Amino acid sequence: MEYLIGIQGPDFVLVAADNVAASSIIQMKHDYDKMFKLSEKILLLCVGEAGDTVQFAEYIQKNVQLYKMRNGYELSPTAAANFTRKNLADYLRSRTPYHVNLLLAGYDEAEGPGLFYMDYLSSLAKAPFAAHGYGAFLTLSILDRYYRPDLSRDDAVDLLKKCVEELSKRFILNLPSFTVRLIDKDGIHDMEKLTLSGEMSGFWFWF
Amino acid sequence: MALEDLCHFRDIFQEDITTERFSINLLHFYIPEVEYLDESPIQFAFPLPTNLPFTSSQTVPLPFPMAHGTTTLAFMFQGGVLAAADTRSSCSGLVACPASQKILPIHSHLVGTTSGTSADCMLWKRILARELRLYQLRHSRRLSTRGAAKLLSHMLHPFKGTELCVAATLCGWDGGELEDECHDHEESAGTTKTQKPDLGMTVGPSQGSSFTPQDSSRKARLSGPRLFYVCSDGTRLEGMLFSVGSGSPYAYSILDQGVRWGLTVEEATSVAREAVYRATHRDAYSGNFVDVFHITSKGWTRRKREDLKEEYYREKERQRLERKTQHDILRANTSIYSQCLAMPS
């Protein structure tokens, strides 16, 4: 039901998430932000079971900030991803496992851009592009076909638009809008929200 | 947990809570522990099926099947926050109480609608009221609605996966009590949106207060109406319109058409009443009366409870009169027509 996507370029990472917060069959919020800012250049996108997402993501977020306070410098995306995976793994065989699927996107001065795919069984993979949710079944092959490692930013946004169009065409659920952000050496940039064209999706931003 | 080590959190929690109930330790608030659910006061012969996904905690068979039937709604508009709810407490097919109260005031400027298990909602509302009152006494200002929502959500988190079911919307009016400068950073620490933390901001009262000129605008932004949805499964959402309960889909359809920011108080009340009325008409587990609460900067006010049975009969009467007048018009038209036909050309 929820959808996350990330595309890594030569010097940037583009990420997008849908904006629906649902409870059984009802959309409770149409403008919900599923991205958590871990540091100036790292974003954590988190979907999964209702309370687990926010609890786990906030826990990781506060611990990354604590690391910065204690040591004076920020965790790199690789280190943050491994820290996140370790926490997922520790809780996996406890009484209260966290059922969350994550994408961690970041830019490091030394390593460049990085996109990390993690799932609720605490697997971790660095990938050039990744997606979570039922929408991933529909869009991964588009990414396979059109992705190139030397994608420009506009190309990446076009590729993202192709994926979103495919979702609006074939996905059974209504995902009217998507938050889009881009991470590069200058930090995290908010980009224009992707909405379904021709629909009254603007009306719902009141509530 | 790294933060846990820093705050020595686990040391505090390992003390025996029942004997330390009167401890003045700030982090030490009494909440019922999850383990009490292992002892069921009434043991029945049949175990209830538990097919809750993703839970590995033990669930205890309920003494009787509980139902979560209700219609509650709340929305923000230019005149504050309006909350409305029905008053039927059902229990697996019978109406246990036709006149229960589902909107519980927590303090003068905060009201919570309850949905789920009535007993759980009432208990946790009282615990929340107690904690908010303690906060107010300790810090000489009210905790914001966002802080109250976060507090409730974190108090309910240990019970995730158990049969506890609380789905509340907290409707409040913040602000008006920021007397001291030094309270601002607590307010900002409590109200910073979790998705986008401002890492430049200080965290916690021990940090120095280095405030920029935009604090006054932040003060203005921090006051005003607020609406939060908190659920025992961990969901915590801020929004402008929520409806919770088995009757909520029916209420949503009326609210989505009628609610705008620019409504007057009377219009908003009538939309809320109508939404609850339609939901009670269609949903078997909602009904009887409707309560409406209105929260403004001066506090909450409560409208007199209305019987929806009367509303139903009034609507039937209106429809009957409409049909009668339409029928009369039709008869008058056909008689004129037949007269025209009968006239010699």
UniProtKB/TrEMBL annotation, chain A:
Localization annotation: Cytoplasm; Nucleus
Statement: the UniProt record of this protein carries the keyword Nucleus: yes
InterPro entries, A to Z: Ntn_hydrolases_N, Proteasome_beta2, Proteasome_bsu_CS, Proteasome_sua/b, Proteasome_suB-type
Annotated CDD domains: proteasome_beta_type_2 (cd03758)
Entry GO terms, CC: cytoplasm; nucleus; proteasome core complex
Gene3D superfamilies for the chain: Glutamine Phosphoribosylpyrophosphate, subunit 1, domain 1
PROSITE patterns the record matches: PROTEASOME_BETA_1, PROTEASOME_BETA_2
An individual GO BP term: proteasomal protein catabolic process
Main location: cytoplasm
Function: Component of the proteasome, a multicatalytic proteinase complex which is characterized by its ability to cleave peptides with Arg, Phe, Tyr, Leu, and Glu adjacent to the leaving group at neutral or slightly basic pH. The proteasome has an ATP-dependent proteolytic activity.
Family (UniProt): Belongs to the peptidase T1B family.
Subunit structure, interactors included: The 26S proteasome consists of a 20S proteasome core and two 19S regulatory subunits. The 20S proteasome core is a barrel-shaped complex made of 28 subunits that are arranged in four stacked rings. The two outer rings are each formed by seven alpha subunits, and the two inner rings are formed by seven beta subunits. The proteolytic activity is exerted by three beta-subunits PSMB5, PSMB6 and PSMB7.
Name by which UniProt lists this protein: Proteasome subunit beta
Native source species: Nothobranchius furzeri
Lineage: Eukaryota, Metazoa, Chordata, Craniata, Vertebrata
Protein encoded by which gene: PSMB2
UniProtKB/TrEMBL annotation, chain B:
Entry's Gene Ontology cellular component terms: cytoplasm; nucleus; proteasome core complex
InterPro entries xref list: Ntn_hydrolases_N, Proteasome_bsu_CS, Proteasome_sua/b, Proteasome_suB-type
Coiled coil, from the record: none
Source species, domain of life: Eukaryota
PROSITE patterns: PROTEASOME_BETA_1, PROTEASOME_BETA_2
UniProt main location, coarse: nucleus
Biased composition, class Polar residues, residue ranges: 204-215
Biological-process GO terms, alphabetical: proteolysis involved in protein catabolic process
Compartment(s): Nucleus
Pfam family, one: Proteasome
Renumbered residue ranges of the record's region Disordered: 182-219
UniProt keyword annotations, A-Z: Cytoplasm, Proteasome
Protein name according to UniProt: Proteasome 20S subunit beta 11b
Species in which this protein is naturally found: Nothobranchius furzeri
High-level lineage: Eukaryota, Metazoa, Chordata, Craniata, Vertebrata
